[in-house]
Structure formats: structure tokens, C-alpha cells
Amino acid sequence: MLLTHPFTAPLAPPFASRTLLHSWRGAVFALLFVALPVSAEERPDSFATLAEELSPSVVNISTSTLVRRNNNDDLEFPPDSPFKDFFDEFLDRNNRPSTRALGSGFLVSEDGYVVTNRHVINGADKIHVTLYNDRRFEAELIGHDSKTDIAVLKIDPDGEVLQAVAFGDSGEMRVGDWVLAIGNPFGLGGSVTAGIISARGRDIGSGPYDDFLQTDAAINRGNSGGPLFNLEGEVVGINTAIFSQTGGSVGIGFAIASNLARNVVEQLRAHGKTRRGWLGVAIQEVTPYVAESFELDEAKGALVSSLHREGPAEAAGLEIGDVVVTFDGKPIDTSRSLPRIVAESAIGKPLDIVVIRDGAPLHLKVTLGVLEEAEQAGLLARADTPRTDKDGGLVFESLGLQVDELTTKSRQQLSIAENIKGVLIVGIASGSPAENSALEIGGVIMRVGKVETETLDDFRQAIEAELKAEKNKILLYIYQQGRAQFFELNLES
Fold this sequence. Notes:
- The protein is globular, with a radius of gyration of 29 Å.
- The protein has 13 helices and 28 strands.
């Protein structure tokens, strides 16, 4: 049988290869079929050795929550009544740990520090860590961080020799690189799955500092908090979430990038809490239209939509309309990268910040505050009171929302019919409740709850009433993308 190549005559069978090598056809044959290079990054023959080495560092985590039932304190019995003992025994039996959650984690020190997801242990009364050899320990919660969904636990080794793993550099991971996930899916401890990095820098809307690696390594319920390893045996991610319509793995899993997790873990270990930088600005994305309007060469950076009173940015001389393009020597390519870089930057010392103002770069110095201290002092909560921006619109900093009057000009630009009455969304802060609730610039807020909001004053009063009622969600009726629908503005997001 002869093999046919699309741009040559039929090739001779293998035994004629010596003759072919003396012709141009032979040269082509040699190049295509003999001299093909072998890739240095071929798929490993087996992950067995790596799995054996790393499995002792991965733990299973189980939690229990005490479900406290009505203790019938109003019931009174005589001191010698037999019914009193009966009810005491009944209530004691019903006030027992009755719910359990299963997750994964990994050892980061030989003295018993364990990293996992916050949602694995959140609300638990007791936490237990089980090693690969089935030895079980009660764990102490050292600290947790809701913004990145990371928690650090501590167990007393009690003579057990623990094997720790180290964080690697997630920034070096490329799409297509091999990774290994080890964890406790569905309670099946020690499960190993392999895959590749499918994407980097994913923002899945879980928090203001989202930086996820996407992988097709099978991740299921119970894998949460477990490690994602590179082929060097380093942790490059913490498996946290999956995208699935069935509840099982469909090949789209997300792991917190190690370069984000490392600093959080170190702070939780050292202090039991995080200590992040605070700039005191609300920002939004630089769209092509914004870039053109602000005379930018390209649509990059973070547009300052509001400044927090008493914040470091205001003290440094930043202004609304500035576009932050560099912070502490790091380029700001997208608006969502600024909060993460600020959070990880040095606190209490002057840092360089470069903004574009009036089409030209401007170099400023800013000294960051501490985000957690600002929250505790109530500085961020004061942003519930709206302020007027330079164009006359309203800015609700805690909501990450900026609105303005719906004018004839804006109606024409956005093709909004005359019968649509409301206030126009002109700004949304990155990582804010407004962004996380799927609100969009150009939407028209027609009602807040049951209150119609045809004017800015209507909107201000309605929002202030909702905030004063301390609700967790605000129902908005918005005309957006050609149709009107209800949106839940989740204040806890």
C-alpha cells in the first residue's frame, strides 16, 4: 500500500527509503517523518511517583455544627418531678452535632498549620483534620478571610511526622501546563486527578481580589480547599469552585492562584487576620469610549469614579476622572487588578502612583492606610451617604454605584425610549455590590423596591430608606440591554 502526501507523487514503501533519500522526495520524507523533534514537555508517562510523594501532605477536613433546638426554658417542673429529668435528657440528646461538611486542605508546615477554604469550615463548632494514614486530629481555627475564601487551621502533631508542601509561583504557569489535584471529593480521601491549566486570571465574581486559575482537572464537591500542584510538586492553586449545571465536574474548575493566597496565608498565620492596603477610591473599567474621551492611547488602567473622604487617595491629590496606569511600579492593565495590587502593597510608606490627567501622565506619592482599620473605624460605612459628583450626579460609594439624570442627549446616545423613566447608571466600581449584582453602565433604574425613581432626589430618598432599614438586599427594577427586569442588589457581596 502506498502513502499519499498532498504535494508529492505517491511515496515508495519503507524499504525504498535509502533511494528516496538521494532525491528531493527523500529529503521531504526525511524531514516530515524521520527528523521531527521530540517535545521537551511531553505528557508524563505516569503521575504515580508525584502522587505518592504529595498525598501525605493533603488532608481531609470534616466539620460539625451543634444544632441548638428550643430548650423549653419556659417549662417549669417541681424539683422532684421525674418529667424534669426526662426533658433534660431529651434536650441534651437533641443539642448534638448533627451536620457535617467534608472538604480538603494541605499542610504548609511541619508543626501542623493547614490551609483550606473558608467556606469549608465557616460556621463550624468543631473541625477535624484527617491525615492520609487515617489519623484524626481536632483543629484550631487560626484565622480566615472572607474576601479570598481562605482559612488557616492548626493541629497538634502529637508525635506524628508531618510532611509539608510549599507554594509555587502561579505567575509562571502557562495555559496548557500540566497540574495535579489531590483531595477529598464526596468523602473519597486521597483522590488524584490530572489536567492542564485552561486559563489564567479568571474573575468569577466571588470577591474583590479574584485571581483564579482555571483547570480541567476533575474537581468535585469535597475538593474545596485542596491543593493544585505543578509538576515540581509545588502548590500553584487552592481548589475552590467549579462551574457545573449538574453539581459534578464538567471540566471547568477554579483554584485561587498561589501568588494571591501566599500573602493571605502568611498574614493569617502570623496575626490571625489580614492587613490590606487601603487607597480610598471607587474605580471602574476603562472602555474604548472612556479611553477616547480621556485622550488615552489604549483602553487600559482604572478610572477613578469617586474618592473617599478622609482616604489616602484624596490626601495624595488624586481626582475624579484620573486614570491609574501604574501603582508602586506595577502596571494596571485592567481596573480589577488595582484593588489586588493595592491590597498587597506596603502600608504606611510613600508609594509611586502614575495617573493620566488631561491626557498627560502625572506622578504622585500616596501612603496607604489599613483597609481593616478603615472598616473597623466606620470610614467605609460612612460612604452610605451619597455625595454629588462634579457633574451633578450621585455617588453611593458603599454600593459602588454612580447615577445621573436621564437626559435627552443620553436617551439618543443609548437609544432609550421616552416612556422609560428613571436615573441612568453612569459608573460602577470594580468588585462592588453593583458589579457583583450584574448591574451595567447605561442601565436605567426605574424603581427601588416599590418606589418609582424618576429623579435623582427620588432615587436618593429610596436608597437611603433601604439602607436605613439595614436590608441585606435591595430590589431594583432596571431597563438594561433592551428590556426591563428586576435585579437584587446584594449588599453583602
